[in-house]
Structure formats: C-alpha cells, structure tokens
Amino acid sequence: REQKQPVLITGSTSGIGFAIAETMARAGHAVMLHGLASPAQGEDLQRRLRKEYEVSCGFSSADISSEAGCAQLIADTREALGNPAILVNNAGVQFTAETSEFPTEQWQKILAINLSAAFFLARDLLPDMRATSWGRIVNISSVHGLVASERKAAYCAAKHGLIGLTKVLALENADRGITANAVCPGWVETPLIQPQIDSIARTQEIDTEAARVQLIGAKQPLARATKPEAIGELVLYLCGDFASTITGASLPVDGGWSAQ
Ligand code: NAD
C-alpha cells in the first residue's frame, strides 16, 4: 500500500491517541505510536495497525516529561519512519486538588507533559516541515483550554497554554504550508473517565448509565460523551487538503460545554 506522510502521535498507546492512530492508519498514513507501555504492548499495537491497515508503524516508550525524553522520541521516530510531517501532541495527564493544596510535583508534571513536551516536539520538528513547505501540527487541548473547572489549576493552565502555543505556531508558519490547530474535547469515552462514573454510581446508588449521564450532563448541555474515533476523524480532516486554510483555530468537540 502507498504510504502517506508519517504521523507522530504522542500518548497513542491508549484512549484518544490510539483512536487517532487507527484513523490515520486507515487513511494510509505511516504511524509512530508512543506512550508509557511495555515493549510487548507496543509490539502488539503495531502488529494490529500493520495487519489491519497495511501501513508502516513504529513505537517509542520515551518519557516526554523531560526535554531529553522528547529528543529521544524524535530520534526513535526518525529511525522507524523518517521525518514526521504531521505531529499530534496528545499525551496528557490529570491531577485534581484545590489550588491551596496542589502539590508542586503534580503541577510540574502536568505542565511538562501537557504543555512543554508539545513545545519541544514542535520546535524540533519544524525545521524539517519548513524545508519541505508542508506540515501539520494538531494539539489535543481540552474544553479546559477554553473554560475552567475547580480543582484543575495545573490542567487548565497547561491546556490554556497549549492553545496560546498553537496560535503562535500558526502565525509563524502561515506562509510555509504548515498549519497548527488545537482540538478541545469535552468528555470523551476513554478509560480515564470510568472511575469518575463508577464513583457517582456507588455513592448515589444509581446504575452506571444514570451515573454517566449525571457526570457528563453536569457540564455538557448535550449529555453524551464523544467517541474517541470522532476526535480521530477531526484530526484526519485537519491534516487533509480541505483544511489547508484552517490554522490557529481551537475547535471544541464538547456537546455545547463551552457555548455557555
Ligand atoms: P489516556 O490516559 O487514555 O492516554 C494518555 C496517553 O499519554 C497514554 O498513551 C500514556 O501512556 C501517555 N503518557 C502519559 N504520560 C506520559 C509520559 N510522561 N510520557 C509519555 N507518554 C505519556 O488519556 P486520554 O483520555 O486518551 O487523553 C488523551 C488526551 O486528550 C490528553 O491530552 C487529555 O488531556 C485530552 N483530553 C481527554 C478528555 C477525556 O474526556 N478523556 C477530554 C479532553 C481532553
């Protein structure tokens, strides 16, 4: 099968990232998987994509909470697939606490993974994108990059910051065939949100479905979680020809959450 431009998707061993990887592979892109998974898990995911979609695949388990880890990820990607013309900054972590009690390590970890890694990777991949006059950067921010919730100081700061970074990348590269955009999901059906649903079901003695509606409906007028594949399809669209004039945008996929 003819391969389209290689795409590096951070945090693609699970959840939204893996859904993006599958969508991009289905469309014929060579895919660099990445995340904190074992070599065996990485092998398994690569095998799935190669078999199902007949595309080239690589995997890196570099810890991108440091600049050196980001450099390692780029080296692993170049070795496996060559220069990625598409970068999807998706890896992210969460920790919730009142600001007055927020631990320093959690603040620094969230800023490092959710924001600084996107900066390091974009900075170091841009020269090659500029050399070919084509590139796509898609940053998976969050509705928490647009509005705030309590107990999420670090996450909201990082996700708002990621949108600011996206806008600068868009301006600096507007005449170079490179676009940069942010996607801002509300609730997405990933393993990440199940514990919160289970906890509501337990404490209020209601069934899982009612708990899910309650969790999601508390913030989203449209009380249904987005499927990870829907984020994948939007990323694919942003990487396609029809999106060549969409740049610097922050696109909510949030059931109306940020419209309020
Ligand atoms: P997830 O926990 O399923 O996946 C996170 C990925 O990041 C995993 O592959 C993990 O290995 C990787 N990762 C975490 N720390 C890392 C590190 N130090 N180094 C390398 N990789 C690391 O999460 P998800 O729900 O799929 O979220 C993906 C992105 O979408 C995140 O940026 C998240 O903030 C954002 N998001 C999620 C939701 C939601 O409701 N699930 C909503 C809005 C935004």
TrEMBL record:
A Pfam family hit: adh_short_C2
Enzyme class at the top of the EC tree: oxidoreductase
Keywords associated with the record: Oxidoreductase
Cross-referenced PROSITE patterns: ADH_SHORT (PS00061)
Cross-referenced InterPro entries: NAD(P)-bd_dom_sf, Sc_DH/Rdtase_CS, SDR, SDR_fam
Keyword Oxidoreductase attributed: yes
GO MF annotation, one: 3-hydroxybutyrate dehydrogenase activity
The family this protein is said to belong to: Belongs to the short-chain dehydrogenases/reductases (SDR) family.
Protein name per its UniProtKB record: 3-hydroxybutyrate dehydrogenase
